Amino acid sequence: LLMASATDAEAAERGAVSLAPSVSPQKPIEHVLRGDYEERRLSNGARYFVRRRGRQPLVVINASGVPAALWLQLLADETDHFRILMCESRASDLFAGGLHTDATVEMDAADAALAVQQEGFDKVDVLAWCNGHLTAIELTEKIAVDSVVLLAPSFFTCDERFATAYGRKILGMLDVVRREPEMTSALCKFTLAQVNASAEDPGKSGLHVWSLPDRARVFEIASPMSTTPSLMRYASRLASDAIYPLRQKLAKLTNRLMVITGNDDHIASDVAATELLAATRVKNTRIRMAAAGHYIQDLQYRYLRTLLESFLVDRSEPRPLARIAVVTSAT
Questions:
Q1: Angle, vertex CA 297, rays to CA 292 and CA 301, nearest 5
Q2: Residue among 46, 47, 29 nearest 38 (CA)
Q3: Cβ of 175: how many Cβ atoms within 10 Å?
Q4: How far is CA 269 from the centre of its chain?
Q5: How many CB atoms lie within 10 A of CB 14?
Q6: Tens-binned pLDDT, residue by residue, of the chain (331 aa)
Q7: Among the four 24, 75, 279, 322, which has the fewest Cβ within 10 Å?
């Protein structure tokens, strides 16, 4: 890993690749969204934020119930080209996270489409993370979308065969919540105890070091499962996701598509993503990042930005790097 990173850094130094150094934002997410973005509402009350600057509209779709703070580096980046639009699901809160009501893929996509129309964007690109991939795919049927980027898509929510060992544990727990709701409170306490233990000593998580999130983010990531009501709604949302016709929708997708995964992702299987995309025969640019887990937008942002610049801004196929493999190319 050190040699690969050094190789990429040397290539960037020579100007052979655009690998901008990451700058840690000094402001919290609330200050970024309220300072650099306009907060707006749809007629149905749904809230969204749109960046005051930028020339290329980019709709960012988050995972269900997770705070927007994991996107802080992208949202605060003052040197990119994107006019970012981020919708808040009616089920959640972009700052606090958690799920306070029910919302489906179709509802989230409909709100995002209305926000795009309200802003007057003729065509947009879409970047979606985790189970946000379903909303992104649904959105392509509602508005003009040029390119779609799926970051660590959790394909297993629609097909359990694609789940990692960790993913199967989560699905099993959520199944218990649905079948035996009286167990939800105990499961919530158990989850929080594990999160606390992981925050105090990441080694207790049982995960490979490259799979781990930023230690400061573990409680944010656990937001959907942090309270009994939220955990019950999270179980409901994933049950709704499970019946979404993912294979059929992917097979019909005609937009430019790039799918990015980390080879140490303990939630969204890198191997499963390759298998599913091949099975649906959807034309795509398939990227695999070495020593990266589920939180690429937070921990490997400099690489993500390079990929976005190539695929979305330059409209070209990303170049392989020491830590980035182009598994399949759409060209």
A1: 80
A2: 47
A3: 14
A4: 14
A5: 8
A6: 556 665 656 555 555 556 665 566 778 999 999 999 999 999 999 999 999 999 999 999 999 999 999 999 999 998 888 999 999 999 999 999 999 999 999 999 999 999 999 999 999 999 999 999 999 999 999 999 999 999 999 988 887 877 888 888 899 999 999 999 999 999 999 988 888 877 776 666 566 677 777 888 888 999 999 999 999 999 999 999 999 999 999 999 999 999 999 999 988 888 888 889 999 999 999 999 998 999 999 999 999 999 999 999 999 999 898 889 998 876 6
A7: 24
Tell me the longest C-alpha to C-alpha distance in the chain.
60
Token match 């990266």: residue?
A: 292
Q: Give the C-alpha separation, 227 to 210, whole Å.
A: 28
At residue 262, what are phi and psi to the nearest 5 degrees? -100, 145
- Tally of helices (H runs) and strands (E runs) in the chain: 13, 9
